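dude i think i finally got it to work??
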Amino acid sequence: MDKEKLEKEMKERGVSKEKMCQELGISRSAFYRKCRGMSQFTLEEIQAIVKILHLESPVDIFFN
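look at this
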């Protein structure tokens, strides 16, 4: 998981962490734990992030 790339994509598209948490249906603390690698994003959450951010592929962010 590349936290910096995810944050960069979110910033470029104007998606706040709060908005992302709302869209994913998770708490802010859960989002931070996942970004820090303390737990993992589920496949469904990754798919939702790709859709929210209009990414072509999740590979660069989630599978480095």
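The CA atoms of residues 18 and 43 lie 20 Å apart.
im so relieved honestly
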